[in-house]
What does this fold into?
Amino acid sequence: MNEKQKKIVVMGGSFNPPTLAHHLLMRHAMDALGAERGVFVPVSDAYLKRKLRDCHPPVVLPPELRLNMLRAMCTDERLEVCEKEMGTVEARTVPTLWELQHENPDAELYFLMGADKLALLVHLTEKRDFLRCFQVALYARDQVGIADALRAHPVLAPYLHRIVLLPQPEGTGDISSSKVRAMMLAGKPCQEMLCPGVWELFKEVRPADFPHVINQFRGEYDFLSNRFACRFVWQGLTFGNAEAAFQASKCADVQERKVFCLCSADKAAQKGRLLVPPAAWEAERGHIMEAILTAKFQQNPELLKRLTDTGHRLLIHGNSKGDTLWGVDLYTWQGENLLGKILMKIREKEKDE
It folds into this structure.
């Protein structure tokens, strides 16, 4: 490779929030490689929410705030922010790098990674010829150990000339976005972990902005699901689960509704898909669902107590079936979450009484 060829260092990540370590690692890599530019590539909001959905609470900063923080960190004119992944559903490292390469055909791209990401590097190289296309700047505390591991690795060994090992800059090992978030939630100062411009934005963030979330109605929260087995009476008929009552609401004839009284949730959903509801049903289905769930909880006091015991937690009917009306698709993180909203409405009504 021509030593005078232009070099660009690319750092991908959540930047939730961007820390002083991100800034120092980028600057150090650029200086070590003699790079002309450093590009920060934040992941999408949907990907980040998937990644942190099991954290309690899941502290996910708004995408525009993450972008503004990154821009505030780019005080050096050589640094910039790439927004190519912000509106996507998933992390797309390879397509993004190809787009950057296309925009900079005379440049050699170096993707910045930590030694803890070797498994990802192996995967990308096996599946996407990553190291054949791009170079990698790899940070490692134990450079000797990592060098030995690379030489012995069957996938990475042929590409040693494409991997540049860099020593981890002093002071970056104890700084992380997760520590900053934890300190914010605990009300502890974290200014020393952030660049001044980032701190000016982050100091306005409050723990109250991130309520605890129940995002799947399973396990200890299975009673929130319409498929949970419990008996209750609605419109004069006794049902064994809320799903059966809801599907029965599509029937104009009482005799047809009675068929659903003995149906399991799965059977009711299956039969309901074959029904053509009355013309006005779709416009009223939200009110119908609220009436059914009100009956379910009011007639089952133990379930009502479990609902109120969820406190002020945000209830999200997260699912992997693409239901974006009653719930939220846990892959795209899109959805109206009508079921969750109805449950929270019933909970609040009970607290007010």
